[in-house]
């Protein structure tokens, strides 16, 4: 399991400190939630902040674009230094073209799906995808309850990718904590985004170790 702490749950007045904590805790990626106040009822991080984060860490920046118009904003986030970019299926009528643009920039291309969007809709996009971000909450805020329906979705996606012979990495996002980590990994998830369970913990570094412990195959 690869761990991607979500910076949205960190202290926004100290994002550099949040990134440093990710490094100290042995995170594999830094998850950066971009919200535009339209696609979701919240507003977070613009390209200048991503640029500043880029200067602070070598960890891969895992951008999650919760924006209504990814076509218009994409190039600025690619130029800011993203290593992976997921756009939402629900906001991308021209998904194939968007994914191609992401890959052409040498960046890993992903698609995020909301809880009510079936993964089966992605079958024709799989060849263009490096990963799928399965939302286990309705996007817009950290600290929400985990939606268990996402587990079956991950299992179906894994089967779909095996049957179609197009391997795809599965990332899950929202409400993941030490109580559900083992079930998430058992459902075939490769990358776990964790926000409040880490940054709101009394000891975030200890929590990151505990999450890893709970994700170990022999524990699952
Ligand atoms: C929600 C975001 C998630 C969220 C994760 O829209 O995409 O990345 O911040 O935070 P927790 O783990 O607290 O749900
Ligand atoms: Zn996210």
What can you see in these coordinates?
With 220 residues, the chain is α/β, with parallel strands linked by helices. The protein contains 8 helices and 8 strands, in the order βαβαβαβαββαβαβαα. It has an 8-stranded parallel sheet with strand order 1-8-7-6-5-4-3-2. Helix 5 links the parallel strand 6 and strand 7. The longest helix is centred in the C-terminal third of the chain and has 15 residues, at 149-163. It is globular and about 45 Å long. The structure holds D-xylitol-5-phosphate and zinc ion. Residues 6, 8-9, 31, 33, 64, 137, 139-140, 142-144, 173-176, 193-197 line the site of D-xylitol-5-phosphate (DX5).
Give a concise summary:
The chain has helices spanning 15-24, 47-56, 70-79, 95-104, 149-163, 181-186, 196-199, 204-215, and strands at residues 2-5, 30-35, 61-66, 84-88, 108-113, 131-135, 169-173, 191-194. It is an alpha/beta fold and 220 residues long. It has an eight-stranded parallel β-sheet.
Judged by helices, strands and strand pairing, the structural class is alpha/beta
How many H/I helical runs?
A: 8
Bound molecules: D-xylitol-5-phosphate, zinc ion
Given the C-alpha coordinates, what overall shape results?
globular
Q: What number is the mean pLDDT?
A: 97
The end-to-end span amounts to: 11 Å
